[in-house]
Amino acid sequence: MSDKVRFELEFVIQSSPKLLFQYIATPSGLSEWFADNVNSRGEIFRFIWDGAEEEAKLLKRKNDEFVRFAWAEEDDGSFFELKIIVDDITSDVSLFITDFAEEDEVEEAKMLWQNQVSSLKQVLGSS
Fold it and tell me: Fewest C-beta in 10 Å: which of 3, 7, 28, 51?
């Protein structure tokens, strides 16, 4: 297996950090934009898309700041992280995403995140 490449994306989101955190850290919030349905039992989150299920473990969480998950079937140290950053000067709120993909799939993964975050912005009423 080839090594995965780390990539990062940043999206300005017109939302309060507290509200945004509910959409990135809770099963009900994630169900609104990230997957068709999300269930959790403790640290294990089950994401469902078109009937297919993926399991992820919640690795880290800091209220109103970030969540980090690792896909259960991946055993390569990769993860995906959703981090809320507030600009000290402008107070702009950004969602900073860190993820990993195979080198030849990075652009496709970035496009997928862009589509997902576009859905998130619609749910939040952010342009």
Answer: 51
Reply yes or no on whether the pLDDT at 103 is more than 80. Answer: yes
Q: Which two tokens stand for residue 47?
A: 């994401």
Q: What residues does each domain of the chain span?
A: 4-124
- What single-letter amino acid sits at 105? E
Averaged pLDDT for residues 45-63: 95
Statement: 4-124 belongs to CATH 3.30.530.20: yes
CA distance linking residue 5 with residue 91, whole number of Å = 31
The contacts of residue 55 (CB under 8 Å, 6+ apart) are: 44, 45, 46, 47, 71, 72, 73
Contact 110, 102 (CB under 8 A): no
Q: What is the pLDDT of residues 14-36, one digit of tens each?
A: 999 999 999 999 999 999 999 99
